[in-house]
Model the fold of this input.
Amino acid sequence: MTVADGRQPDSAVRAEKQQHHAQRKPPSAVLRTALILGIVVWLCAPLAAFAYLSSTSNSTELTSSTTVWQPVRENTTTVRERISLALEWGSGTPVVSPSWEGTVQSVNVAAGSRLADGDIVATVSGVQRRAFAGKTPLWRSLSRGDSGTDVAALNTWLADIGYTVTQGKTFTQKTLTAVRDYAGDIGVTTKVSSFEPAWVVFLPAHSISIGEVDLTPGAPAPAAGQPVITQNQKLISATLIAEARGGDSGQDESEATNTAPSAADTITAETDQALYVGDTKIELNTQRSAASSMGIKTLSKLVSSDATKVSAALTSAAKQGQLVVPTDAVFTDANSKTCVASRSSTSSAPRGVEIAIVSQNVGSLIVTGQLGASDSVAIAPPADIRTCE
Done:
């Protein structure tokens, strides 16, 4: 209904407002519902996360308690038994002066260098004195017609350093000619009819390592028999010992001593084993418990003179009955036995088996024992099967 001036009556206006207000109520209800749901989710989310983590933890625990088994395999590779060599050093024979007279004019050797057969040692009273590496020193003047092992040694030495002689135990005319040529080359100015032992310095080996030199230019020539050159430490022996007593470095970390290893430490190589230091083969003595004299010479070139032990290995071909197992499968039982937990292909029941370790590689061991090539061993076996038969 419309009044005369065109306006709606008050009752109509109130009805229209009520209708409009009713249409605005539903959005408020939706917001309230969404808010309630959000609160519910906020409260329940931590509980759901806790339940998930608990479930994951339980699953991980079950998985970690599962024993892992790995097959054993036959060994087909070269076996390297790790050992050590106990080194013993000693001072070499000193080099002494012969019967010299006069003054030392120059010295041709120095500490830290090597002196070899035929090298010039020093010049005394105008004459060069060279090293002579014979079996024994030359002890007498030698002239034409003389004979003996010393003459044979002289003939050999003169030939070795480049002079023409007739080999043998007799001092011949050719020997005299060679001696005169040699005397002229070293500075002898007088007439020569014999070879004088004071022209040379006896060397106890074909080549030596010089530790100290006791010769001074300008000083009087040393008396006969006085040490003029001291050798560096010389390797005397290299004895095989168990690796546990050695260590992995070429030089022992403890104070260096030359104490010989006890009988309990030493080991003997099998007849089929070869001794190696690094990639170099070292010859063994007949007892197979130490390096031979030739082996010591080889070893001397590989180690420093302050080393008391050096790592080594005894190598041999693979043998029947040798098996490869993971390192983590091996344990020591309550009776100090070295064991593995194994099971056969026909039985799932685990059993503890005592083993002997032959060699160690990265991540695996070569062993012997009552195992079969078709068996499996447990990796880090749990306590209930860490027993040994």
User: Anything to note?
Assistant: The radius of gyration is 46 Å. Helices lie at 10-64, 149-160, 173-186, 293-300. Residues 56-64, 245-258 have pLDDT under 50 and may be disordered. The first strand starts at residue 68 and ends at 71.
